[in-house]
Task: inverse folding
């Protein structure tokens, strides 16, 4: 049996978004996470109901009207009250739907982003297109007219327990459809009264028929829309985390042995763990900064015998993250293409069923688990960052990765402090939401999911993780430059001290970065180890060599990229060349560079890099029992 890898799933989402074009047809069966993201951000994409779906909705709505009007059937939410008030009855069908919107439009305060609301509108329309919700296609088409005319309802950020669905947020969308006088919208970037926008776009407000108000709002669609947007970028963040891990291996002169198949595909064959290990081997292919030989074939140096956990344990640590993200995508995809309101009508079999598909618990737990997975990525990056910046354990890099006089320049110390702040906030956000529920609405909603709140918290967690990724990418670019410079300096010094055994011994005491960045004092000290008649010439040669090497790195002429692996080289070049982030030697403030990297991540400029790095990975992993 084989399972699709996380990297292939992630790249398929990137490819789907890139190939969407300017029109999407809704059938109720094949809306993807990438589709939701694309439409949520691009109002020029036209969304249309597929003809077969239009016919299904038309027949379904006619069935409902026949059951209620012709047969006099009493059905929840059509001629009864709502929730805990479902023991009331009324024959005023239109007023009943208006009453539903009136009591659920009870929000205040801050609003959801335009993108989140557009995502919810698209998902709701697609779910209704399945033809099980009793709504006429004309109503769904009006919802799509809002999308296609870039009219987005202003929706309060808070106030939903996500069961019975996201009633309050979706009620504000439905209120615009009926032209509620007080409703506000954002029309082509400008907030205004909804009636003015509808009039300008030549959209007629709808008159709600039986069950149509309930069909529009009685679903966890807002949570599904936000979750879709979140998962698209979360998958990219997980890919980036693995690339950061590869750069950290090179920065710390780490070992690829940690990713050997013996440990994973044979030793502990969890599917996510095996994928991370294989990804790391591919990312680090042809690296000249990482140790690629098994330790058993190397002489003992007396140094630490194996990498610390942030490198060595990364497959075991990130493996569950990949599995969690894959499962979250699977679950959300189901929600995007399902009937998530209540009750559900099947005109095909003459069946009406009351249930709770609106509950959103699957979404809530998926978002909780996704947020936990994002936290684990942050933990790994934080651990690696803390090791790389600490000269006592970073295998010979300067304190704070300073590339000048480290008595005066403190390099990335501020970024180190910020990393701890980001991690603490991310830790706090990771608390689960799905188990923090209270009974609501006359104890009818005695259990609920808080799915939308969980999705919102996950968006915040993702933003923090993206900041941590930007932070460590900037740090790692500096670190591999310094690692390469350290190798060049060491090689040059070995040549210059040839024939001077005392100077060679002194090199065990003086660090390479003291000679590179505090050259005059360190070269003079090293010169004391050579005969006096040769001392001045020796010191001059050392000083000149150090100045030349440091200048090459400062000016980007040291060709660090040639020594990086196939995967990390692409990210390094993106940072140094595409984003023009220079080697840092105290010449400026680093916050503008960090912001530039963060903007590139959040603006998805890294998508092409991820495709280049991961496109050669396997699309599936064999889950058969290993031979013993």
Result:
């Amino acid at each position: 049996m084989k399972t699709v890898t996380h990297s292939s799933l992630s790249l398929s989402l990137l490819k789907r978004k890139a190939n969407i074009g300017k029109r999407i047809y809704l059938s109720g069966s094949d809306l993807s996470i990438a589709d939701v993201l694309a439409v949520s951000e691009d109002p020029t994409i036209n969304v249309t109901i597929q003809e077969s779906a239009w016919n299904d909705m038309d027949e379904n709505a006619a069935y409902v009207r026949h059951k209620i009007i012709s047969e006099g059937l009493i059905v929840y939410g059509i001629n009864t009250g709502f929730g805990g008030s479902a023991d009331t009855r009324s024959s005023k069908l239109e007023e009943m739907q208006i009453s539903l919107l009136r009591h659920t439009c009870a929000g205040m305060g801050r609003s959801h982003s335009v993108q989140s609301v557009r995502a919810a509108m698209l998902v709701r329309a697609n779910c209704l297109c399945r033809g099980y919700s009793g709504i006429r296609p004309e109503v769904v088409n009006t919802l799509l007219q809002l999308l296609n005319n870039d009219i987005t309802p202003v929706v309060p950020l808070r106030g939903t327990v996500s069961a019975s669905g996201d009633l309050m947020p979706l009620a504000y969308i439905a209120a615009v459809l009926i032209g509620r006088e007080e409703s506000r919208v954002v029309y082509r970037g400008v907030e205004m009264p909804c009636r003015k926008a509808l009039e300008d776009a030549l959209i007629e407000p709808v008159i709600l028929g039986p069950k149509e108000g309930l069909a529009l709002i009685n679903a966890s669609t807002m949570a599904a829309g936000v979750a879709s947007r979140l998962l698209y970028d979360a998958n990219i963040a997980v890919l980036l985390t693995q690339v950061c891990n590869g750069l950290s291996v090179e920065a710390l002169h780490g070992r690829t042995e940690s990713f050997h198949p013996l440990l994973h595909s044979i030793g502990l064959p969890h599917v996510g763990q095996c994928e991370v290990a294989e990804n790391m081997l591919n990312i680090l292919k042809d690296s000249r900064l990482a140790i690629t030989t098994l330790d058993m074939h190397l002489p003992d140096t007396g140094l630490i015998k194996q990498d610390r956990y942030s490198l060595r344990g990364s497959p075991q640590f990130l493996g569950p993250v990949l599995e969690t993200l894959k499962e979250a995508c699977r679950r959300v995809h189901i929600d995007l293409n399902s009937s998530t309101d209540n009750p559900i009508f099947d005109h095909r079999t003459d069946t009406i069923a009351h249930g709770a598909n609106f509950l959103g618990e699957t979404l809530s737990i998926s978002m909780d688990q996704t947020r936990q997975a994002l936290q684990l990525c942050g933990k790994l990056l934080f651990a690696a960052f803390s090791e790389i910046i600490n000269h006592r354990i970073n295998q010979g890099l300067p304190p704070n990765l300073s590339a000048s006089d480290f008595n005066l320049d403190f390099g990335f110390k501020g970024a180190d402090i910020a990393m701890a702040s980001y991690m603490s906030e991310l830790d706090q956000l990771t608390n689960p939401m799905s188990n923090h529920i209270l009974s609501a609405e006359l104890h009818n909603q005695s259990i609920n999911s808080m799915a939308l709140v969980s999705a919102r918290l996950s968006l915040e967690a993702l933003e923090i993780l993206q900041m941590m990724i930007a932070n460590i990418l900037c740090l790692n670019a500096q670190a591999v430059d310094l690692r390469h410079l350290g190798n060049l300096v060491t090689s040059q010094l070995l040549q210059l001290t040839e024939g001077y055994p005392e100077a060679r011994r002194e090199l065990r005491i003086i660090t390479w970065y003291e000679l590179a960045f505090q050259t005059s004092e360190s070269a003079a000290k090293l010169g004391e180890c050579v005969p006096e008649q040769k001392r001045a010439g020796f010191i001059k040669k050392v000083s000149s060599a150090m100045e030349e090497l440091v200048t090459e790195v400062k000016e980007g002429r040291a060709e660090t990229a040639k020594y990086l692996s196939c995967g990390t080289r692409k990210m390094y070049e993106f940072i140094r060349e595409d984003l023009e982030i220079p080697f840092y030697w105290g010449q400026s403030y680093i916050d503008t560079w960090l912001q530039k990297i963060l903007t590139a991540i959040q603006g998805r400029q890294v998508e092409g890099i991820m495709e280049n790095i991961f496109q050669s990975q396997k699309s599936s992993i064999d889950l058969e029992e290993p031979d013993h």
Observations:
- Confidence is low (pLDDT under 50) at residues 623-628.
